[in-house]
Design brief:
With about 220 residues, the chain is of the alpha+beta class. The protein has one domain: Fumarylacetoacetase-like, C-terminal domain (Fumarylacetoacetate hydrolase, domain 2). About 15% of the residues lie in helices and about 35% in strands. The protein is built from four helices and 18 strands. The strands form four sheets. Strands 3, 4, 5, 8, 9, 11, 12 and 15 form an eight-stranded mixed beta sheet that branches. Strands 6-18-17-13-14 form a five-stranded mixed beta sheet, with no helix packed on it. Strands 10-7-16 form a three-stranded antiparallel beta sheet. Bound molecules: magnesium ion. Magnesium ion binds next to strand 3.
Length: about 220
C-alpha cells in the first residue's frame, strides 16, 4: 500500500490506480516514430511501482533500454464518473512531478506484436513521485514548465501548454470509461526529449510552481 501526503496538510491518500496518458505531446509521438493518436492513449501502472524523491530506481535485469519520461501528475481527491471538462478541476486534490520510467525495448517488442506493454511500465520503482502540492497553489495546470536533468545536463524542457489533451480533457476522457476514485493518480504524458538512463545516473525533474524530485539509477 502506498500513501500520499500533501504539503502543509494533514490529509493522506492511499494510492489506488495510476492512470496514464501516452503520446500526449505531438513532438514526443513523432520522436517515437508513432502516428499521432486520434484519441488519448491510456494505460495503467500499479501502486506497487511507486517510489518517492530521494529513493532509487532499480534498473531491471530483464531490460537493456530504460527510459525516463517527465510528467505532470494529478492526485484525484473526489471520486467521480463521467466527469465533464467543466467540473474536472474540482476532482483534483493536488499536483506533483512524476517520472514514468519505461523499458523501451520491452515496450517496442510488445507494440510490434500487438501485445499489452504492461511489464515495460509496471516494474518495481518505475513510478517516481515528488511531494504533492495542494491544487490551490497551482493557478493553471495547463501552463507549467517541465524540466529534466541527467547528471546536470538538461534533457527535457517543455510546457504543459503543449499537451494535446488538457488536464480537464484527460479527466473527462478517463472518467467516461471508468470511475476515478479518491487516491487515484493520473500521469498526463511526457514531452519530447525522452532517452535512456544508465546505472549511476542522477536525475532531477522539476515543474515550475509544483516541485522537484531527485533520484538515481542503480
Ligand atoms: Mg509516460
Amino acid at each position: 500500500m502506498k500513501k500520499i501526503k500533501i504539503q502543509n496538510s494533514q490529509k493522506e491518500f492511499v494510492v489506488g490506480k495510476i492512470a496514464c496518458v501516452g503520446k500526449n505531446y505531438l513532438e514526443h509521438a513523432k520522436e517515437l516514430g508513432d502516428a499521432i493518436p486520434e484519441k488519448p492513449v491510456i494505460f495503467l501502472k500499479p501502486a506497487s511501482s511507486i517510489i518517492f524523491s530521494g529513493e532509487k530506481i532499480i534498473y531491471p535485469e530483464f531490460s537493456k533500454s530504460l527510459h525516463y519520461e517527465t510528467e505532470l501528475v494529478l492526485l484525484i481527491g473526489k471520486t467521480g464518473k463521467k466527469i465533464s471538462k467543466q467540473n474536472a478541476l474540482e476532482h483534483i486534490e493536488a499536483y506533483a512531478v512524476g517520472l514514468d520510467m519505461t523499458l523501451r525495448d520491452l515496450q517496442s517488442e510488445a507494440k510490434s506484436k500487438g501485445h499489452p506493454w504492461t511489464i515495460s511500465k509496471c516494474f518495481d520503482t518505475s513510478t517516481v513521485l515528488s511531494e504533492f502540492i495542494p491544487k490551490v497553489d497551482v493557478k493553471n495546470p495547463n501552463s507549467l514548465e517541465l524540466k529534466l536533468w541527467i547528471n546536470g545536463e538538461l534533457k527535457q524542457h517543455d510546457n504543459t501548454s503543449n499537451m494535446i489533451y488538457s488536464v480537464e480533457e484527460i479527466i473527462e476522457y478517463l472518467s467516461y470509461y471508468f470511475t476515478l476514485e479518491e487516491g487515484d493518480l493520473v500521469f498526463t504524458g511526457t514531452p519530447k526529449g525522452v532517452g535512456e538512463v544508465k546505472r549511476g545516473d542522477k536525475l532531477i525533474a522539476e515543474i515550475s510552481g509544483v516541485g522537484k524530485l531527485k533520484t538515481e539509477v542503480i
